[in-house]
């Protein structure tokens, strides 16, 4: 069982080394899944003295105000014989045999992370102590809860510490060691208050009562220690720490443990509880409980690690491999990325992905609506018909039918269709550009190389611009062709009876009457509507042929032609990877290394 605690210690150290502190970030965290014991208490609750009693050494910084400003992951390793020593993870090759130097290094390392501003940090310090006087155990010493900020600290420090402590102890794998002084009302205990918030049933909280020997005469803590005042799943444990005078005199910790045992054994109030009191019993109890918790969590840890390894490998695969070093490899990589983009673009047009339907909407709704808004009948008003007919006749009125007048009326009406035709071209162009940008964002490989992404996007848009100009030219030619050559058969079939104003035997003067002009306007409107119906079908064909079809066929052809002329240096500039992606790949690689190492360590222990 002892190897289980060592296993978790090893994984915790690896977590910190690879940047997994259990904080909220975009990477999966193993730290939060590891069973741990967090030590919680208010300032002056005796928290530091309890830890030093368990270790049997003076090693924690002391002083006024908030002394512990970073989590201290304290890993205790029992050795059979030899001199006691300590090691910090950030100083891997240095052994500390002077525990006063350990105290100083904790303070110095805290200042390195937080500065001398008395701020706090959630980045832990890892300290391993090897001694024959300890049990195998890991504890996380958290900053002491406080009610006021001291000089040099922001007012938010009170809430900052609470939030940090809560972020540790709210995790279901965290065992809470709640330190409360016996000479204060338990109802005001900071440790009990915050523990109750995250563990209301007390199922993972160990209550520790300090300063029992400092209670007022005539009072005792029997009701608390027997679980009558505040019930927890696990029995309360009372400890008697060294007094400040003992600390000042550097009283030996082992001797202090002996005096603590004698206090409980000889006390009339606590004699019946002596076997489960004291810091020595506390250390053994926590070690045994931590072993049991770790053993119960191993299957879940193995499952979590396997699942996360698969997820990390999948994302690393998606991010892609590092860039090739030779020109051929670079060119091949760029071509493959461009083909991926081109395929996604085509899928949008063909309906496999969304967006292509918007082009049909232009032809089915936008173009017909624009044609309707032209209102040809207003353009062919009586006054406009009379004006154009008479102007077309010039100094000599027409003899039989006003052919020039008809032509001018038709041409001046048909020219208005150019507007909707151009709008249809522009609308499809805008949709195609939008699909290019969407395809760019959906091409995962392009996210890796921002310069290539910009170049491909610019090349695709340039191609679309050229296609738009060709499409506009062809589409407007359709309109112009209708104006340049009229369909004669349409007019030959028109009725020529006198009643409808078509009889050429009328006098010249009667031919400018309202009935006659109205008939001309009606004939022209009928012809324009016929042409408009024809263009409504032919304009979409021209647009699709010149723009959509060409975009599918050769969107990046010009870019590929220019790509082949580039030198290795220019190709390298296209594959300048986004620093954020590089950082992400590095972070994922480190996290994957952590999980694979943890998987191997756990498998070795479980199989063993």
TrEMBL record:
A single GO BP: cell division
One GO location term (cellular component): membrane
Positions of the GED domain: 517-608
Compartments reported by the entry: Cytoplasm, Cytoskeleton, Phragmoplast
GO molecular function, one term: GTP binding
GTP-binding is among the record's keywords: yes
Residue ranges annotated for the Dynamin-type G domain, each copy included: 31-299
Keywords carried by this UniProt record: Cell cycle, Cell division, Cytoplasm, Cytoskeleton, GTP-binding, Hydrolase, Microtubule, Motor protein, Nucleotide-binding
Gene3D superfamilies tied to this protein: Dynamin, middle domain, P-loop containing nucleotide triphosphate hydrolases
Protein family: Belongs to the TRAFAC class dynamin-like GTPase superfamily. Dynamin/Fzo/YdjA family.
PANTHER family reported for this sequence: DYNAMIN, PHRAGMOPLASTIN DRP1B
Identification of the protein by name: DYNAMIN
């Amino acid at each position: 069982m002892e190897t289980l605690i060592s296993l978790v210690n090893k994984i915790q150290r690896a977590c910190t080394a690879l940047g997994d502190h259990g904080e909220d970030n975009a990477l999966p965290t193993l730290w939060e899944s590891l069973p741990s014991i967090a030590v919680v208490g208010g300032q002056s609750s005796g928290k530091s003295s309890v830890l030093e009693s368990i270790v049997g050494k003076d090693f924690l910084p002391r002083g006024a105000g908030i002394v512990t400003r970073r989590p201290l992951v304290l890993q205790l390793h029992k050795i059979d014989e030899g001199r006691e020593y300590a090691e910090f993870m950030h100083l891997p090759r240095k052994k500390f045999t002077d525990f006063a130097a350990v105290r100083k290094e904790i303070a110095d390392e805290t200042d390195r992370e937080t500065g001398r501003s008395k701020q706090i940090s959630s980045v832990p310090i890892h300290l391993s102590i090897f001694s024959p006087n300890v049990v195998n155990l890991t504890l996380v010493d958290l900053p002491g809860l406080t009610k006021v900020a001291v000089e040099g600290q922001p007012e938010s420090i009170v809430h900052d510490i609470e939030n940090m402590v809560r972020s540790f102890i709210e995790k279901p794998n965290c065992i809470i060691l709640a330190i409360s002084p016996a000479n204060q009302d338990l109802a005001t205990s900071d440790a009990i208050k915050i523990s109750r918030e995250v563990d209301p049933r007390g199922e993972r909280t160990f209550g520790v009562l300090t300063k029992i020997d400092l209670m007022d005469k005539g009072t005792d803590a029997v009701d608390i220690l027997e679980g009558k005042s505040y019930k927890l799943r696990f029995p309360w444990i009372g400890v008697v720490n060294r007094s400040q005078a003992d600390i000042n005199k550097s009283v030996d910790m082992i001797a202090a443990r002996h005096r603590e045992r004698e206090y409980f054994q000889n006390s009339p109030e606590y004699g019946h509880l002596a076997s489960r009191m004291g810091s020595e019993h506390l250390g053994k109890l926590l070690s045994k409980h931590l072993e049991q918790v770790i053993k119960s969590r191993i299957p879940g840890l193995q499952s979590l690690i396997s699942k996360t390894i698969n997820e990390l490998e999948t994302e690393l695969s998606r991010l892609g491999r590092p860039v090739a070093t030779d020109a051929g490899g670079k060119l091949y990589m760029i071509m493959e990325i461009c083909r991926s983009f081109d395929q996604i673009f085509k899928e949008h047009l063909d309906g496999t992905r969304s967006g292509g339907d918007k082009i049909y909407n232009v032809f089915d709704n936008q173009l017909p609506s624009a044609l309707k808004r032209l209102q040809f009948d207003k353009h062919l008003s009586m006054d406009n018909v009379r004006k154009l007919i008479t102007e077309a006749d010039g100094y000599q009125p027409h003899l039989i039918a006003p052919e020039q007048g008809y032509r001018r009326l038709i041409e001046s009406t048909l020219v208005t269709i150019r507007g909707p035709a151009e709008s249809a071209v522009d609308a499809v162009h805008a949709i195609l550009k939008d699909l290019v940008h969407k395809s760019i964002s959906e091409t995962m490989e392009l996210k890796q190389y921002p310069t290539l992404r910009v170049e491909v996007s610019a090349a695709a848009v340039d191609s679309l611009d050229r296609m738009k100009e060709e499409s506009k030219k062809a589409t407007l030619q359709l309109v112009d062709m209708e104006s340049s050559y009229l369909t004669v058969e349409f007019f030959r079939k028109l009725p020529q009876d006198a009643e409808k104003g078509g009889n050429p035997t009328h006098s010249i003067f009667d031919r400018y009457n309202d009935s006659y002009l109205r008939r001309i306007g009606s004939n022209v409107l009928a012809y324009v509507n016929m042409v408009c119906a024809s263009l409504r079908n032919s304009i979409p064909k021209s647009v699709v042929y010149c723009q959509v079809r060409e975009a599918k066929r050769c969107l990046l052809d010009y870019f590929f032609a220019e790509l082949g002329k580039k030198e290795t240096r220019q190709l390298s500039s296209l594959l300048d990877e986004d620093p954020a992606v590089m950082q992400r790949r590095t972070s994922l690689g480190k996290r994957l290394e952590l999980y694979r190492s943890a998987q191997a360590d756990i498998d070795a222990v479980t199989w063993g």
